[in-house]
Amino acid sequence: MKLSRERLIQSDGAVSVLVVFLGFLVGTILIALVGKNPLNMYKAILQALSGYNIDNGKMNIRYIAETINYSVPFILCGLSMGFANRVGLFNIGGEGQYIMGMTIAQMVALLGPQVQGLHWVLAILCAIIIGSLWGGLVGVLKAKYEVSEVVSTIMLNYIALYLSRIITLQMPGATTYKTANFPETALITNDFFTKITNYSLLNNGIFMMIIAVIVFWFIMEKTSLGFGMRATGFNKEAARASGIPVVKSIALSMAIAGAFAGLAGGIVALGSFKYGRVLSGMDNYGFDGIAVALVGNSTALGTALAGLLFGMLKNAQALMQSKQIPKEITFIIQGMIVIFIALRSALILYQQYLDKKKLQKEVGVK
Amino acid sequence: MSMILGMLPSVLMIVAPILITAIGGMICEKSGVVNIALEGLMAIGACTTAAAHVLMEMAGVPHTLSLFLALFMGLVVGGLFSIIHAVAAINFNADQTISGTGINLLSTGVTIFASQILFNADRTKEFMMGMQTDALGIYPTAYIAVAVVILSWFLLYKLPFGMHLRACGEHPGAAESVGINVKKMRYFAVLSSGVLAGLAGGCVVLTQTIQYTSNTINGRGFIALAAVSFGRWNPLGVTGAAFLFGTAQAFAIIANNVPALKVLPSEVFNILPYVVTLVALVLFSGKNYAPSAAGQPYEKGAS
Predict the structure, then answer these.
(1) What is the ipTM of this complex?
(2) Which A residues 150-179 touch B at CB under 8 Å?
(3) C-beta atoms surrounding B7 within 10 Å
(4) Range B115-132 average pLDDT
(5) What is the C-alpha separation between B153 and B157, in angstroms, rounded?
(6) In chain A, whose CA is at the least distance from the CA of B299?
(7) Which residue of B has its CA nearest to A153?
């Protein structure tokens, strides 16, 4: 019994399930406290997850497709945060990298060569490149000038937001909130998906996301580059002493992290919208990506699963609102999940306390 | 010149809440705890103040009393939410960036959720009258900010208490060894940052808008955080940084009415504080002014 408890505390996966459960528990209690029916929240979640509307027994596959589509940027931004996290960095800049990717993808979509098969590829590539530059800059500042990545990424998020406005307002047909429509050649919509999912927005971005998850896993677990990065994350000094180029590891990891977030921006720009957006605020995928990576323990598979959870919550928002449940409950659940993750360090203290007790018992101290 | 003088009241209006928050963040980092939740705590304070003020207005509470009580409630609730950060960072040795991020995420949910419950909308109901300016056209928030700066300077540099607090941020082990209670000091510091951020949020709502929406705080807390680093963790520097950033923000708003400034997009002024901070961090790198133990959990007895 005792052994299993210790193993549970030490298992990252089990702790993730626990914090998610606790987050939902707080949300459920809060809904009940304000006099609403928590069951309606779970009905909305069931519908977002399975497409099944329990109230009228109807099934609509579109909801499943939308959940997957929402989860694509969550997963990619989670990979961005997770990749940096494995190297011991805290990438709050996913939002800025995402915004830059989105902005450049929109620009290429509006101004690039309208060649079938080339146009959208170019736009997505540019989004990936600008994302990695935006992230790499943070890495260079950190590695060369010891500028805290927490502060610099927050600054770069806002620089990206306003830069995006300046650039997008110069685009053809720009009004205060949108540009002209993209040409067909720039879109990554998938007619087959659209048809079989009752006109959901699910698009080719899902394939790019799956490739990204595999790339993340491959670099991290299967290459010497990834090994060096993980070593840097575990113990910088030890890594340096064993000949791993720590400065390069840090700069490169931020660049790769930025590439994931930039890709997310490109996919949202070309997949979910048919025109360029003049942002009035942040989309928050980058910030939520922090939570996604934390729940997923910064592994490829964990992040993908956590991203699906967050995509499902986002898709359930509108359904909750229609059932008189304030949709902001999902943000509260997400926030509580992250707070519980921060508090998991208490489990380590608890483990130390147990160990101490055990040792005292063994040596017979009263 | 007269234009700049004419701008002063609006600059002060924008600077005051940023400065109040930044001073809180500075006290917190001086004690060794980094608080990136300032943004979220401001939002919570702003929402509380806006909701309290409009409800009291509807109940017929006299205007000045209502303003005072509303600000006070914002301050208290800001302090209450900062306890989460304190418990995580001080008792449980949690990663301070993660718990701060958690509070920021939570605040967007909690504030709008509360508005949905209280007012059936994704924002608080508009109040009729916020704070009024004095004969010079200056809001009382500016005087509050000045008081906060002077008090914090006196506390940190003129009282033994302040020296003890700073010691906890520089070398908690040494502080503990001479009998300073590191945990207590850090609790005080984190709670001050929560209280001041909550108060500042209320100041934003009562001077710059007529209700709380999800856009009310819009990065002010992060600007305050930048002002702490840019101001090199001392009250005078932080005040200067807050003024620089506040003036840039004021320009972004005013630029639309001044023909000479209209050639530039107003976003250029919005970007300014962030670019300046980033450049300054690079230029001053190498010389580290940050409290040396900031961000690190302190474990009693561990080397």
Answers:
(1) 0.91
(2) 150-152, 154-156, 158-159, 162-163, 165-166, 169
(3) 16
(4) 92
(5) 6
(6) A349
(7) B278
Of the residues B36, B101, B218, the best mutation for testing chain A's interface (the one with the most A CB atoms within 10 Å of its CB) is: B101
- Residues B22/B145, Cβ–Cβ less than 8 Å: no
Residues 6+ apart with CB under 8 A from A121: none
What kind and span of H or E run contains A257? helix A246-267
CB neighbour burial string for B175-201, b if at least 16 within 10 angstroms, e if fewer = bbeeebebbebbbbbbbbbbbbbbbbb
Q: B66: exposed, middle or buried (C-beta count within 10 Å: 0-12, 13-18, 19+)? A: buried
Going by their DSSP bridges, the two strands A275-277 and A58-59 should be labelled as unpaired
Cα-based angle A145, B220, B105 (whole degrees, multiple of 5): 90
Closest among A123, A363, A143 to A240, alpha carbons compared: A143
A162/B270 Cβ within 8 A? yes
The residue type of B89 is A
B136 contacts B69 by C-beta, under 8 angstroms = no
Which of A146, A335, A344 is closest, CB to CB, to B109?
A335
pLDDT at residue number A357: 87
- Residue in B3, B265, B92 with CA at minimum distance from that of residue A341: B92
Q: What would the pLDDT profile of A216-242 be if each residue is shown by its tens digit?
A: 999 999 998 899 889 888 888 888 888
Q: What backbone phi and psi angles, to 5 degrees, belong to A59?
A: -115, 130
pLDDT, tens only, B134-172: 888 899 999 999 999 999 999 999 999 999 999 999 999
Whole-number Å distance between alpha carbons of A199 and B96: 43
Q: What is the pLDDT of residue B303?
A: 43
Assigned token pair, A173 = 């047909």
Contact A150 B36 (CB under 8 A): yes
Query: In chain B, what is the straight-line distance between the N-terminal and C-terminal CA atoms, in Å?
Result: 58
Interface of B with A in 196-255 (CB under 8 A): 214-215, 218-219, 222, 225-226, 229
CA separation for the pair B164, A309 (Å, rounded): 46
Residue type at position B188 = F
Chain B residues touching residue A344 (CB < 8 angstroms): 94
Identify the weakest region by mean pLDDT among A79-88, B80-89, B226-235, B251-260.
B251-260
Q: How far is A338 from chain B (nearest CA, A)?
A: 5
| Pairwise CA distance, residues B248 & B254, whole Å | 10
The encoded tokens of residue B129 equal: 């009258």
Residue of B nearest to A291 (CA): B102
Best probe of the B interface among A162, A278, A294, A323, by most B CBs < 10 A, is A162
Contact flag B109-A330 (C-beta cutoff 8 Å): yes
Q: What are phi and psi of A53, to 5 degrees?
A: -90, 110
| Whether CATH 1.10.3470 fits B10-283 | yes
Contact list, A163 vs chain B (CB under 8 Å): 267, 271
- Does the beta-carbon distance from B105 to A335 stay under 8 Å? yes
In chain B, residues with a C-beta closer than 8 Å to the C-beta of A294 are: 98
Structure-token pair, residue A265 = 């921006």
Q: Tell me the two tokens of residue B227.
A: 């002002």
* β pairing state of A52-53 and A275-277: unpaired
**DSSP H helices in chain B:** 2-30, 38-58, 63-86, 96-119, 140-158, 160-170, 172-177, 182-208, 220-230, 235-254, 267-283
Q: Contact, B204 vs B121, CB < 8 A?
A: no
- Residue A1 pLDDT: 41
